[in-house]
Amino acid sequence: MAEIKSVQISLDKNICEVLWKDDHVSRFHARWLRYNCKCTICKPPFPNVYTVDVLQLPDTLKIDEAHTSNNGNKLCTKYDGEVLPDHESRHEADWLRAKCYCDGCLETKIEQRDVIGRNMKNNGKRRDIPTMEYKEIVDDHDRGLFKMMNNLVENGFCLVKKVPIEKGMVVKMAKKIGFIEPSAYGEMFDVFVKDSENEAYTNHLLPFHQDQPTYESAPGVQMLHAIRFDDCITGGESKLVDMFEAVEVLRSELPHHFKTLTEVPVLYDTIDLNGSVPKFLENQKYHINIDYFGKIVEVNWQPGTNAAPQVREGDVDRYYEAYRALLRIIRRPEMQFRFKMDCGDLLAFNNRRMLHARESYNENGGKRHLQGTYLKLEDLKSKYVTLAHQLNILVVPPKVGNRSSF
Ligand SMILES: [Fe+2]
Ligand SMILES: [Zn+2]
Ligand SMILES: [Zn+2]
User: Fold this and answer.
1) How far is the CA of 76 from the centre of ligand 2 (A)?
2) What would the pLDDT profile of 166-204 be if each residue is shown by its tens digit?
3) What is the pLDDT of residues 296-316, one digit of tens each?
4) Exposure winner among 150, 154, 252, 313, fewest CB in 10 A?
5) Ligand 2 center to residue 385 CA distance, Å?
């Protein structure tokens, strides 16, 4: 429990300085406190309701009064020019301490949430495939499901063995986590050799890629369930690369190329005006997005949908040099996880973090048939945190690669 030792208003009345029992100091701005008032009028106790009309309050807000109540467990503040009659802002000490935005606290929060950064530093070591069995999910109910999500969050992927071989099972599994995210390919897609406009539906090699960066928000979690993978098939191994790791390697080895890929955008498109489902999808974005804190928060890579760059003349060569440098890193064998799916295997992975690839294969008279579906990353994160809460497991809300450190 956080406890406030004392409070002090700055001379210009813009800052409320809070001294905590453990001698930490937080400095809260007048507007920050008032606009985020937690009293029952400003913030009723259900989500997504906000009653403060900030323009009703003065342009420059000054703190008139600040004191604690409940033995230092609450901060109470009043403001010059307050519009609500007899209004006093109230903030619980625990909430305030958790929201402290001093440099130290911000840095700690970003570090704690950066599970991707913590878990990718095994470059060059043996790469284990996080694996579990379907019966763990069924027998251990929510703990098994939590374990699967924990692998997804920490490692970026999870291989679930012996999932019942029935059509549509992949959707049932995905719905344990959240809502299905439909795309131009439907709610569920079938991957096998068929007459098609899509390279995935051949037996050709599929290079490292993420699915559908042509969308502003590409699919978050991808699940692929092998409902048929005959023994006679040769080839067809799956490979994964943690793209967050790959771009960190680029940043440390070739920082100028890293910078280029945050500054010069790639154009993705899928244009098929005469296909069975006509498509015109395009999106210009950066291979690497860093946030306000300088952290990598989004990566994307899909050679199959790379369109001819539409960038200024002076950027073309530096873009391609950087692109080639990153591709070389992706191709390093020590960057890759490799395995062959068995019939019944379900591979769940973060499509915004992991690149996936498939070796070419020969059916030799047999068949390989995968079914796939997508989920949003925010729904994975939401289920992960809320399920942990229900199971009394302490977790920090994780960074998931959706362009946000928080
Ligand atoms: Fe794919
Ligand atoms: Zn209020
Ligand atoms: Zn702090």
Assistant:
1) 10
2) 999 999 999 999 999 998 888 999 999 987 667 788 899
3) 999 999 999 999 999 999 999
4) 313
5) 28
